[in-house]
């Protein structure tokens, strides 16, 4: 069986503690991974601190050039990386290949942003006492960064932390998700081969108690975390004085207004609800449909749901592969049964097959059931009708989450009102909340997070404004 060491300060290491990685689809043993120990975490932090004086002074052209070289390396290893995500995370092969393409794009955009991220000249002589003063601002890297990545986008959400950090001049210590560590270890191979300074990236698969040093150590100047709200807000509480960026959960909603293109809306919502078994923080979960088109929408949606293929993630036609593990599949099944016990009706779905949960449609769902008010993180949607557009906006906002929402409408005023009234980090008009392109600022409000990701937004989070005032009297 393949064994994978971890990566610290430009060198590969092993430890006596090892973890076996299994396929969530068929429980095959895929590899073993060495787990970093307390001294390894200390060494990774020390390596990041040591290299920071070098990375912070790297000229723009060099950071941009290395980003482009890294992007090209991802492209050359596309199928290898995609199959690793299929086997480790159960991600359908089409989505896995698209994720590698996104990683390429992230580093390409990071290169461009490194070349354009600048400051401004500010007139300060706004009062007589400030005559002759001119202000100049520039952005400087904040320092070593702790990054904790999730399982559901093991490559791209790691890259969303690593690419902007390196582009702005910050070294990173990255803890991958325990279910999907090998893609991040391959990321370390690519970064090292591209020629980044040793210590620019360390990848440390480890137990949570061991990795906690990345949260609490004051030498790390920013913590970026993607995962559950419960874990994320607790990490923030214990993070000390460092900056924190949190990308957390959601129970993402879609509004289908009267006059919307139903065929288009159905095709997009089916993908947004069921791709990767709904294991996306912006997966469609709650659907609100105008009463005038409710029956037509429901008929089309159920017909499309019936065609969704489940099973082997290596099959290009499969949209729903396995949940990340059996426990996750059992939890989703229990949430569905809880809703049904409270009066919900299942119009599509069926028995769980191991770790595979079929596409499920629920109606008449009480709003306080877990499958509605919490993050289902599975292939299940609730569908409700509304008569008044403002009522739909209110019902979408009736959530502790606020990441992204989708609104299908032909009415420009309603589109603009959605943007104004929905308590979300992003409002996607005439598409699903699951839509994202990597350069856009991405993040949530309420329990959905703090700060923004996306290349430029992340680089701004990972840097600080520094002001210089020049007194140049005439």
Overview of this structure, please?
This protein is an alpha/beta fold and 474 residues long. It has 2 domains: 2-248 and 448-468, Aldehyde Dehydrogenase, Chain A, domain 1; 253-437, 3-Layer(aba) Sandwich (Aldehyde Dehydrogenase, Chain A, domain 2), CATH 3.40.309.10. It is built from 16 helices and 23 strands. It is globular. Helix content is 39%, strand content 21%. The strands form 6 sheets. A 7-stranded mixed β-sheet has the order 15-16-17-14-13-19-20, sandwiched between helices. Strands 10-9-8-11-12-22 form a 6-stranded mixed β-sheet, with helices on both faces.
Q: Give the neighbour order of strands across the main sheet.
A: 15-16-17-14-13-19-20
Low-confidence stretches: none
- State the helix count: 16
User: Domains counted in the coordinates: how many?
Assistant: 2
Q: Which architecture of the largest domain per CATH?
A: 3-Layer(aba) Sandwich
Globally, the shape reads globular
Classify the helix fraction into a percent range.
Answer: 25-40%
Mean pLDDT: 97
* Rg (C-alpha, Å): 23 Å
Assigned CATH superfamily of the largest domain: Aldehyde Dehydrogenase, Chain A, domain 1
Identify the CATH class of the largest domain. Alpha Beta
Q: Please state roughly what percent of the residues sit in beta strands, choosing from under 5%, 5-15%, 15-25%, 25-35%, 35-45% or over 45%.
A: 15-25%
Structural class by SSE content: alpha/beta
């Amino acid at each position: 069986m393949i064994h994978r060491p971890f990566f610290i300060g430009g060198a590969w290491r092993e430890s006596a503690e090892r973890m076996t990685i299994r396929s969530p689809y068929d429980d095959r043993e895929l590899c073993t991974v060495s787990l970093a120990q307390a001294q390894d975490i200390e060494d990774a932090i020390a390596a990041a601190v040591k290299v920071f004086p070098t990375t912070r002074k790297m000229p723009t052209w060099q950071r941009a050039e290395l980003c482009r070289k890294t992007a090209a390396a991802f492209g050359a290893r596309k199928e290898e990386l995609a199959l690793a995500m299929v086997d480790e995370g159960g991600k359908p092969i089409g989505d896995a290949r698209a994720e590698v393409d996104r990683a390429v794009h992230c580093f390409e955009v990071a290169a461009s942003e490194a070349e354009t991220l600048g400051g401004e000249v500010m007139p300060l002589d706004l009062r007589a006492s400030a005559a002759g003063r001119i202000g100049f601002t520039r952005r400087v890297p904040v320092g070593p960064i702790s990054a904790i990545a999730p399982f559901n986008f093991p490559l791209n959400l790691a890259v969303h932390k690593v690419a902007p950090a390196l582009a702005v001049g910050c070294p990173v210590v990255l803890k991958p998700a325990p279910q999907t560590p090998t893609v991040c270890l391959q990321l370390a191979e690519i970064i090292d081969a591209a020629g980044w300074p040793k210590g620019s990236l360390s990848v440390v698969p480890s137990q949570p108690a061991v990795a906690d040093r990345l949260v609490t150590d004051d030498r790390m100047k920013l913590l970026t975390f993607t995962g559950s709200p419960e874990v994320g807000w607790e990490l923030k509480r214990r993070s000390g004085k460092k900056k924190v960026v949190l990308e957390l959960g959601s129970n993402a909603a879609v509004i289908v207004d009267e006059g919307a293109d139903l065929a288009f809306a159905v095709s997009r919502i089916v993908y947004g609800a069921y791709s990767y078994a709904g294991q996306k923080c912006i997966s469609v979960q709650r659907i609100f449909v105008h009463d005038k088109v409710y029956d037509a929408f429901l008929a089309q949606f159920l017909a499309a749901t019936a065609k969704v293929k489940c099973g082997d993630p290596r099959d290009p036609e499969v949209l729903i592969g396995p949940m990340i593990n059996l426990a996750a599949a059992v939890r989703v099944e229990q949430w569905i049964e809880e809703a049904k016990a409270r009066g919900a009706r299942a119009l599509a779905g069926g028995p769980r097959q191991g770790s595979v949960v079929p596409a499920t449609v629920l109606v008449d769902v009480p709003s306080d059931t877990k499958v509605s008010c919490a993050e289902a993180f599975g292939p299940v949607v609730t569908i409700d009708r509304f008569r008044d557009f403002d009522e739909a906006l209110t019902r979408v906002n009736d959530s502790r989450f606020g990441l992204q929402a989708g609104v299908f409408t032909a009415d420009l005023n309603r589109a603009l009102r959605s943007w104004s009234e929905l308590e979300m980090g992003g409002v996607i008009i005439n598409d699903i909340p699951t839509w994202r392109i990597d350069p856009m600022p991405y993040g949530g409000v309420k329990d959905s997070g703090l700060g923004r990701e996306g290349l430029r937004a992340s680089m701004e989070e990972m840097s600080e404004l520094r002001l210089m005032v020049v007194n140049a009297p005439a």
